[in-house]
């Protein structure tokens, strides 16, 4: 007779399958919690599990089921008789995560919150970066390196941003034309844990060649009875100086009835706000110069001169609201139903004041009577600047700057509702299934108003205090005179995105109760129907007044002194905490003007020319409507043997079959030459308009997987994993649209360049063949040492390319995404956890968590391009975007008596942010970055604790680099120049938590 115990990874719920001697008994424990299916096809079969409650975690080793007629009662009796260890706080969370890793059927790393509302970090994104192999960006968007993010974004696993996101084992997403959740949108307070799967089995929903992240919320049957928990706090940054609140509340209970079985209900709500400030100083791209003005006095024939400098302050605010509600009903021991509803709302806004260098022509020269200073490689170090760009009747001989106030606001809402069941057909077969509906909406407004000025006596030193640039003007009082500024332009951009998905799945499991080799077999089917209906306009820039757009005022422009309303003098107070010198104060459009977009036009239009800026209008080219249907079926066999190989081993082998059908609609947007000086024949052909464009695509994938585990000893196990994975293209890449463009000669009489941008509905998914092997030593309940080696072979890598295409008989150079190239990723992860229980007295409370990841890649398909022309630069190969070669975490922990504390250091090496930055059009890199965070908590009693959490204690500086730079005709400057320096708040939060 062979008994076995299977434990749900997600909740530590033990269910027992008895031998033939008790075949008449129902699978009471199998149905008892019924949550394996709720969290998708991610069951873990193990010898033990941790049952987490709101006040602690009790971990025990259950016996294998015997022939007792009441297995549930037997287990309760065993739990009383066995020795137990009750732990709480950090130690309980470490132990729970370690149990999940040890007992998993595949390679997985977890962070758990045994205590309610107690993930170790205040955002899911920051929590994820503590896991080996996981890194995050510190920018609001990696394609916009001018705007850092205090909480981080852009999760990558082993250097790949193609990460699948699951919520309770089911597919979920944020509607931003992508496929994943924006993890910063999800309230951390709702989470019971976060799991990262590095190499999947066939049960796991497809979609992540980097890996899969599963976010877990709580269910009422997780706890033995009533649980009430709440937390509240207030946070503040040392730069923003704004206090913001946070609060959460959880109620969970379960009830038994005489005739209707057992019921459970849970409600978890959270609310949090955050305000941060980021200061940045930047250097514009360097140009190769051979002219006498630039080289004078240098001794060089060729020098490299920056296009100027910018400085900016960004005030960021966000609000997160989350609701998780769940009901469970177990009418009999063989049947269970559950339903979950999860709502998250993320409101984000930021207000930026930027002094931006306006000369993009590279015509910076030394001021009269001066020369530039260079280093021994001919790279500019310091000098007094002048510029001939924008030289007109407005210029005073200074350098033109835009002082712009930019406001962006975005609201993202995601609603996820699912209903599931689980039914024991007999002693060996279990049927489960669920249906799900997800709807996510996102609305964004981006509005900028520009004023302009000419700053005289401008002096730039790119190696000022602390190695950061410094900027001065002479006279310094010039910047505070409103007569020296005028209203110049405005720009707006709007997005409205709606994504919906309907999904259904059905799974059947058969347990082999009398086999020495076979454990159980699972088969399942899943179908989805997803739609994306998105509106995204271009960036609508329009002039208000300028030298070429004059109005009837004494200065021919709308001077700020002439129109002072809605202009304000802004001081960059405590800029970079006083370590960087810049001109201040300056005049800017007021915050109240840009924050009131609906009425801005009524103020700005009377100031300027009649044909100037007006609010953006939605056109057919701004629409992106797509549909996608998938059908999947899988089969997986779980097996194992205690003696056949001389050591116990187990594993699973399976395959997942998937078909994807895509349907897209859009337009070809023709160019309009009717207002140019080209010939009448060309005007007749190219007079604007739109041509409908639609496409359909489908593809199939077979995704086999194999996971093996060898138990070398009771504490030492060796894993081997192999699988194939896919990541479908983003919806933004598959859009059916072609936007044709052109460039005219200097007198506007002839088109000299025909170009355009387009999506590609024919894209295939990126596909990866991947292998992992891991050695794991569990030497204590909270003691773990492990090492993992991994290999990924990626095909169909998606990247932009420019190719000739013909429209109306004319050849255009069209840039669109293609499946090109192959990439190989190799690497290793090592990790170590331990509480030092062998130390005497109070020192027993010390512990350490540490991990490091090493990644290398070859065969990347990214290439540098010539700025503004998109021509690929030969001889310049770039690595995969987002891949740091090295990253590590080190966390010191202490938990003893009423005290618990944590000091966490996270670091990653430099990596490529984008192959073409939106501002510089150059490859842009994030420099190495490390951040120190900490927390300390004190338990007032067994139910209540207070604490302090702190982020960015070391005042980390985010650095951005740019290059190489191509000048065409094979001329490339291979240097990488430092582009930006950013500093953000040190953040502190006082927290009160209670659980009853």
Automatic annotation (TrEMBL):
Signal peptide: none annotated. InterPro entries: Beta-barrel_TonB, Beta-barrel_TonB_sf, Plug_dom, Plug_dom_sf, TonB_rcpt_bac. Residues 442-953 form the TonB-dependent receptor-like beta-barrel domain. Residues 59-69 have a biased composition (Polar residues). It holds the Pfam family TonB_dep_Rec_b-barrel. Residues 101-212 form the TonB-dependent receptor plug domain. Residues 54-78 are annotated as: Disordered. The keyword Membrane applies. It is found in: Cell outer membrane. The keyword Membrane applies. Keywords: Cell outer membrane, Membrane, Receptor, TonB box. Belongs to the TonB-dependent receptor family. This is TonB-dependent receptor.
